[in-house]
């Protein structure tokens, strides 16, 4: 009985020894000095919650307690979005004889208004984003269409054109995301309500991600109040002082994959 008991105990010890030794052998085969854990992260689609980048200093974060209230931010959600645009104010102008074959008027610089009432002069701009993160290139276009300039008496500024100059595209987070070749320095928009004009053609596979400012003029070179013109040909047009004229300018970002 004692011999049997000793043999069983010896056998059990051998089995336990083998069980304990096995993990050590595996660990040694990997690397006894290093071991790894995992880090995990998951992303969901950008569904809004953005605000305008501060056009007076694109590198400066917007103060959440004092956001921009004008221009109004588009409330729609989505990763491909026109966020905000400035109105184009061509001012109050005296009627005068046409110069050459028409009249040209210059848009004032934009006025940015903050929640606390602060107002700051800025170039006119369009802000948009493409934050799609679905393993495909961020290819898109940005276009503009403008309706006819009409007054309350339904008189029109026939064949008028909006002329944009000093056009540049800014991505404050990463300027390498800007495809400069796809942004003409000047552009013309017909005011017929149907013809789209392309301002941004982002067709580069390695660019186009993020939030952008399409800016007309720059405070640095004092062109913020001299970069958007309204051209009215004299042929077929008679200016009226009875009421102001207005047009709706619609900016569109579209997938270009």
Automatic annotation (TrEMBL):
Alphabetic keyword roster: Signal
Keyword Signal: yes
UniProt keyword Signal present: yes
Signal sequence, renumbered to the chain: 1-28
Segments forming a coiled coil: none
Residue span of region Disordered: 43-75
Domain WxL: start-end pairs: 37-255
Pfam families: WxL (PF13731)
InterPro entries: WxL_dom
Top-level division of the source organism's lineage: Bacteria
Record's protein name: WxL domain-containing protein
Organism of origin: Enterococcus rotai
């Amino acid at each position: 009985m004692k011999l049997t008991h000793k043999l069983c105990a010896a056998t059990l010890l051998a089995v336990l020894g083998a069980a304990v030794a096995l993990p050590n052998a595996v660990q040694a085969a990997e690397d006894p000095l290093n071991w790894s854990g995992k880090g995990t992260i998951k992303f969901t689609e950008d569904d809004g919650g953005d605000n305008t980048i501060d056009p007076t200093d694109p590198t400066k974060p917007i103060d959440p307690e004092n956001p921009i209230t004008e221009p109004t931010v588009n409330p729609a959600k989505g990763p491909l979005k026109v966020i905000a645009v400035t109105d184009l104010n061509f001012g109050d102008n005296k009627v005068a004889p046409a110069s050459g074959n028409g009249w040209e008027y210059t848009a004032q610089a934009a006025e940015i208004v903050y929640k606390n009432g602060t107002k700051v002069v800025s170039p006119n701009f369009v802000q948009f984003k493409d934050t799609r993160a679905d393993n495909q290139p961020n290819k898109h276009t940005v276009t503009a269409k403008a309706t006819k300039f009409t007054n309350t008496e339904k008189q029109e500024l026939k064949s008028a054109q909006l002329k944009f100059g000093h056009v540049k595209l800014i991505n404050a987070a990463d300027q390498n995301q800007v495809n400069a070749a796809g942004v003409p320095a000047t552009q013309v928009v017909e005011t017929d309500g149907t013809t789209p004009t392309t301002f941004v053609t982002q067709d580069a596979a390695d660019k186009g991600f993020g939030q952008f400012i399409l800016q007309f003029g720059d405070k640095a070179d004092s062109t913020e109040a001299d970069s958007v013109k309204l051209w009215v040909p004299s042929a077929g047009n008679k200016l009226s002082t009875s009421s102001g004229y207005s047009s709706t300018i619609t900016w569109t970002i579209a997938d270009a994959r």
